[in-house]
Amino acid sequence: MTSSGDATDPSTATDAHRPRYDFDFHGPALDTIFDDYERMHRECPVSWSDHYGGFWSLVRADDVHAAEHDWDTFSVAPSMILPSFGTDRPLIPLDIDPPALTPYRQLLLPFFTPQRMDGLIPRTRELARQLLDQVEGQEVFDAAPYCRMLPSMVFSEYCGFPVEDADRFDQWVDDIVFARTDDETVARQAAADVYDYFRALIALRRREPGDDVISGLLAAEVQGRPLDDEEMLDICYLLFVAGLETTAGTIRAGLWFLAQHPDDLAALAADPARIPAAAEEFLRALSPVQAMARTLRRDTEIGGVPMRAGERVVVVFGAANRDPDRFECPHEIRLDRAHNPHMAFGAGAHRCLGSNLARREVNVALEEMIRRHPRFELAEPAPWHGIGPLLLRPLP
Predict the structure, then answer these.
(1) Is 267 helix (H, G, I), strand (E, B) or coil?
(2) Positive or negative CA dihedral for 392, 166, 173, 333?
(3) Which distant-in-sequence residues (6+ apart) come within 8 Å of 172 by Cβ?
């Protein structure tokens, strides 16, 4: 696995119409991915990579936006996830194109409205304070569990995933989201375990419904009928994987940045009303989901580069969010950026269902950390991404 690209002149490539860049968007590649984006925007905004069976990369904001709205050409099937999340099943509604997608989104959207998510803020704040209490008084503490556990606990309670199983959830998410790029068998075993877990949980909620998303879905209908067990399993699996990890990445990235920029941290501590704008900038510049995949349904051409039906295409949200044609000084993190039309949550029909919840979780997590520790720094170097330690040292 490489962490940086190598651009080549299209005329020297095996296929004269296939400009190449050795692009990866997982694991150690994230350490230098923003350098890749700068070079790709400048030299090869449409390029081919041989990773994960081969795919095209789109990095310009206009190209990514157009692809997100053209599902007749850029299909989410067989999966938006590259490599797979350990299952060959289509994850509902992630891996379904319109018009089949529409009834499932209509079913799920009421569970994630701004109004319902506002109702979770007090509990999110309570849990954040409890997690911070656990490391109170330590000269150096690891903020990674705070970043991960807060959204995991909030989402689990809301959806009806037993919070007491959090340790198991953590390991499964690690295996599915992070280990899959190195060992697919690990992800597949974890996915099988998660499906078994949800079979039992769905059966329990059928017998003993509660005030949670799973119980609500079991009582709801799609196109005049109840969801069957297979649909329920696929929806629960997607909610589990997406809801327990992506928001944690944004919280981590925000704390990582603030720990190295004391003036920005001081500004937020002095005026917490600025935190939501700062969170949007972290989403733009340090998005936890850098890219997702599509499959071409027909031959097409982008930027003068021909592509063939059946080939995979990766829409690189992280690069679109650093497009110099869309953002002023795109590689600078400006917490007071006034106009911020980022695509951290995607765009079009597949825009993230959980964006309302994610924003509230990130805002509360940053607010409570900064309220408790108005000044802090990195105790040792750490990456902005991933699941490793994020050691912070509170300052007087």
Answers:
(1) helix
(2) negative
(3) 190, 193, 194, 240
pLDDT band at 170 (very low <50, low <70, confident <90, very high): confident
By the 8 A CB rule, do 121 and 143 touch?
no
Fold of 10-394: Cytochrome p450 (1.10.630)
Which whole-number Å values give the CA distances from 355 to 27, 191, 286, in the listed order? 24, 24, 16
Q: For the packed helices 121-133 and 144-159, what is the interaxial angle rounded to 10 degrees?
A: 140
For residue 359, name the pLDDT band (cuts at 50, 70, 90).
very high
The kind and range of the H/E element at 378 are strand 376-378
The per-residue pLDDT for range 20-75, each reduced to its tens digit, is: 999 999 999 999 999 999 999 999 999 999 999 999 999 999 999 999 999 999 99
In the prediction, which pLDDT does 86 show? 76
What are the structure tokens assigned to 54, written together?
């081969």
Please write the tens of the pLDDT for every residue from 65-111. 999 999 999 999 999 999 877 787 888 898 999 999 999 999 999 99
> What are the beta bridge partners of residue 222?
225
Nearest CA to 163 out of 244, 247, 251, 249 is that of 244
Q: Which amino acid is at 209?
A: P
Contact 143, 376 (CB under 8 A): no
Q: What is the pLDDT of residue 17?
A: 63
Contact 297, 309 (CB under 8 A): yes
In the chain, where the domains are located = 10-394
Residue 392 in contact with residue 141, Cβ under 8 Å? Answer: yes
Over the range 153-163, which residues count as b (16 or more CB within 10 Å of their CB) and which as e?
A: bbbbbbbbbee
With contact defined as beta carbons under 8 Å apart, do 285 and 321 qualify?
A: yes
**Alpha-carbon distances, residue 10 vs 44, 86, 205, 274, 396 (angstroms):** 9, 34, 56, 46, 56
Q: Are 103 and 97 in contact (CB under 8 A)?
A: no
Residue 374 and residue 358: Cα distance in Å, rounded? 23
pLDDT at residue 302 is higher than 90: yes
Position 179 scores a pLDDT of 79
Dihedral of alpha carbons 352, 354, 355, 359, sign: negative
Q: Is the dihedral of CA 211, 214, 219, 222 positive or negative?
A: positive
